[in-house]
Amino acid sequence: MIILKKIISFYYREYKLNLSGFQDILTNIIFFFVSIFIFIFSIGPDKETISSIGIGIVWTLLLLSSTLSLRKFYQDDFENGNLLIMHLNGLSFGFIAILKTFSHFIFVQMPFLLSIPIACILLNIESDKLIYLFYSFALGSFILSCLGSISSSMNLMNQRNFLLGSIIVMIFSVPVIIFSVSIVNLEENFNSLISILFGILLIVFAINPWASGLCLKLSLENN
Amino acid sequence: MILVKDLSIERSNKKIFENVNLSLGSGKIILLKGKNGSGKTTLLKALLNLIEPSSGAIYWKGKLLKKNLYNFFNHVTYIADRTSSLSNLSVQENIKIWKKFFLSSISNSQVDNILETLKLDIYLDQKVNSLSFGETKKLEFLRLIIENKKIWILDEPLSNLDNESIDVMAQTFEDHRSKEGSIIFSSHQISDINVSEEVLL
Amino acid sequence: MSLRFQRLLLILLTLVIILSAVLLILYNTRENVSYFYTPSEIDKSDIIVNKIIRIGGFVENDSFNKISSGSFKFKITDEKASILVTFEGILPDLFREGQGAVIEGAFVDKNIFNATNVFAKHDENYMPASIKEDLQNTGNWNKKYK
Amino acid sequence: MIFLVNPSKFNKVADYVFLPVLILSIILFSIGLIFAFYLSPDDYQQGSTVRIMYVHVPSAWLALLTYVIMSLYSIAGLAFRIPFGFIINTAVAPIGAVFTLICIISGSLWGKPMWGTWWVWDARLTSVAILFIIYVIIIFINLSFENRIVREKVVAIFILVGSVNLPIVKFSVDWWNTLHQPATISKLSKPSIDPSMMTPLIIMTFAFIMMGIAIAILRIKTEIISRKSYLS
To answer: pLDDT digits over D109-126, tens only?
Structure first.
């Protein structure tokens, strides 16, 4: 019961934190839309071309914009010592990583989910594909959150080259992109593709607390 | 309660300190002294199992600290030399978050009293980043009361505080000692806090 | 429960999750991670005209026709079904009848596939050319070396 | 076998072994190249292009083998606290990257005449490209952290996380339809390669291994020395 109360208070804290830093999330979304504009203008006005590659564009830009906020994943809590306080309050590092991953999924990735319909209108994607895009993004973005947790905890002590964190997320999200995009394009294979994505999700979810927990401990020890 | 035996720590194969012995019982206040880089913070972090000792051991209630870690964490408050309050939120919200997070049973009037003695009550609705550094530091000490734990581990609690606040701190320490609590803190400045043991690193 | 035991339990749980996830992925990817489809996998009634796909198989024996200097016609088969392919361009060295090939392009109608790219696929067997002649001379040439 | 986990023992063994290994690798290379270019026969399908195989296949094997070694040493370093594992990781990563690059370039040169394309995005080629980028990231992590202890362990963790790619590289040709052909030599079945071509392949593989070991010894020794100077 105590642990449940601690979890609730953890999310209360995250909620307050994200509410006060709402402009950061908004900036991500603006970045997402501005890049869509750029894409549309650089491709040209041909509606068919845009809608044929639209899914790919949406997914690429979702990936890019969600890697933008990676720096914030643990950095603030690490620098002001809150990670340590959470640990001293009885949460193991792996458990903190899981909680933080869910928090990132809820507060950073969900706003993207809500902005997908508008992106689909802009990119001329048919509305019957929207539901598949929703499914694939709901699973895919959680995978991205787990990967983000791993890479940003790795790069906590990396003052010189943070772009590395984004590259790590992007290189491991190649399969996610492949299967998410084909979910939308090959509706007849929906079940098997969604279970592949779910399998990837299980793998990263299982790896995440170990890898991130170890990295968090490492960074706190040597800070 | 805490027993440190022959503790030596080296980092990157550089010796930081050797053969430190400590015993922190209830009602005891230990002051760690030493110049910069003598390993005060390192020792405090080792007490929190954040740094692996190269030799020696730390015991908590007779068992190795590592084996008994989360039990130990239930009894300890650690305040680092940086402030953990969330700078984008107001003082009041920070206090609310802390109270929820540490499952504190402290009443609002108690908090108000302390805020008044610390002269922070006028800033209640202001954001933390508009406070001065000394004031955020004082706000940080509110956690000691909210967490309400037996053992306090404090890293440089007295730096950047005015004399008046140091007096308040001394009074708080004395109260805690009278409640069978124990404190270990580091400092490089001389103060009139009544300590039971001084350890020079 | 001691900390050590909890840790062991967590490690086991992680391994079980990863193992089941791997099985889930492998079971489902067989049909999905294909660089190409085989002719028998393509459902004749379900052909989408002008959608770019890849088809892999063998070039059917006696099906290769040179229409003009840079334009070819042949059939791709996997011994269950075959597809008529037209191609304009340069064929890779290894391309010949009986050889594996992957073609990229789109159906122009239900029966004719227009290739934009032709890749030759070679198998994992390596054998000196002289031995092949010997084998053929003695009649032991095994047709499975395609 | 203690020299595999102990730096000073390793130094001793390496001093004895280095010159023989280097000479052996040069000899093997010269024999192997003579075999590969003059003495081995043309393939019945591919003609003389098949000779690219004698570079491509050994480098591909070694790219994978290097990663396996790094993964094992990462486990040794993280779980059993053997610091020598981290030294190996730092020293060996660039070698693996070079092998992967050789594999990719030679494969590309082989693919153009045979398949008719330099590069396709099938599962094998994509996973090897990802392997190369993983190697590059490992090198970059080594370059960009200031704190040595954190850097070593982060590299080890990353290597372990990245090792999910290994089975994908190895088995992609068996699991999925790819343009790349399946493995010629596997443990379970008789190799489907003629002995006259198998010999140069094996010689070249050992030449590559010896060269890899020679370079690795040099790099590991410098790494050990640089850490010694760090200590004092």
So the answer is: 988 888 888 888 888 899
Check if the beta carbon of residue B168 is closer than 8 Å to that of residue B118. Answer: yes
The answer to whether D43 contacts C30, with C-beta atoms less than 8 Å apart, is no
Query: pLDDT tens across D22-70, in order?
Result: 999 999 999 999 988 888 888 777 778 888 889 999 999 999 999 999 9
Taking the Cβ of residue B12 and every Cβ of chain D, the question of whether any pair is shorter than 8 Å is answered with yes
Measure CB to CB from residue A5 to each of B52, B87, B103 and give the nearest one.
Answer: B103
**Contact with chain C for residue D182, Cβ under 8 A:** yes
Domain-located, residue C128: no
Determine the distance in angstroms separating the CA of A25 from the nearest CA of chain B, rounded to an integer. 15
* Token representation of residue B90: 């107001």
CA distance to partner chain C, nearest, from residue A201 (Å): 8
User: Radius of gyration over alpha carbons of chain D, in Å?
Assistant: 19
Tell me whether residues A88 and B51 touch, CB distance under 8 A: no
Sign of CA dihedral B13, B18, B19, B21: negative
pLDDT tens digits in sequence order for chain B, 201 residues long: 888 888 888 876 778 888 888 888 888 888 888 888 788 888 888 888 888 888 888 998 888 888 888 888 888 999 988 888 888 888 888 998 998 888 888 888 888 888 888 888 888 888 888 888 888 888 888 888 888 888 999 988 888 888 888 888 888 888 888 888 899 988 877 777 777 778 887
Q: Give the Å distances, CA to CA, from C32 to A143, A175, A196, C55, C112.
A: 20, 12, 9, 14, 24
Give the angle A23-A26-A29 at the CA atoms, nearest 5°: 155
Asked whether residue C139 is domain-assigned, the answer is no
Per-residue pLDDT tens over the stretch D146-166: 888 889 999 999 999 999 999
Whether the predicted pLDDT of C80 surpasses 70 = yes
Q: What is the CA radius of gyration of chain B?
A: 17
Q: How many domains does chain C have?
A: 1
Chains A, C: CB contacts within 8 A come to: 49
Distance from CA of A51 to the nearest CA of C (A): 14
**Coil, helix or strand at residue D41:** coil
Whether D232 has a pLDDT exceeding 50, the answer reads no
Q: Is A16 on the interface with B (CB under 8 A)?
A: yes
Q: Give domain status of residue C71, yes or no.
A: yes
Does ipTM top 0.85? yes
- Output the pLDDT for position A30: 93
Return the pLDDT at A201. Answer: 94
Q: Report the gap between the CA of D105 and the closest CA in chain A (Å).
A: 20
Does residue C64 fall inside a structural domain? yes
**Domain residue spans of chain D:** 16-40+50-183+190-231
C-alpha D27/C-alpha D24 separation (Å) is 5
How many CB atoms lie under 10 A from the CB of residue C89? 12
Long-range contact pairs involving D75-83 (C-beta distance under 8 Å, separation at least 24): D75/D160, D76/D5, D77/D152, D77/D153, D77/D156, D78/A214, D78/D153, D78/D156, D78/D157, D78/D160, D82/D5, D83/D152
**In terms of residue numbers, what domain contains C81?**
39-121
The sign of the dihedral angle between the CA atoms of B12, B13, B14, B15 is positive
What order do you get walking across the sheet with B63-64 strand by strand?
Answer: B14-24, B2-11, B55-60, B63-64
Q: What is the dihedral of CA D70, D74, D80, D81, to 10 degrees?
A: 110
Kindly list the partner chains of chain A, i.e. chains with 3 or more CB atom pairs below 8 Å: B, C, D
Query: Hey, of D42, D45, D198, which one would you mutate to test binding to chain C, going by the most C CBs within 10 A of its CB?
Result: D45
Dihedral Cα D68, D165, D113, C36, nearest 10 deg: 150
pLDDT surpassing 50 at residue A51? yes
Residue B192: which H helix or E strand, with range?
Answer: none
Bridge pairing between strands C71-77 and B197-200: unpaired
SS (H, E, C) C122-135: CCCCECEHHHHHHH
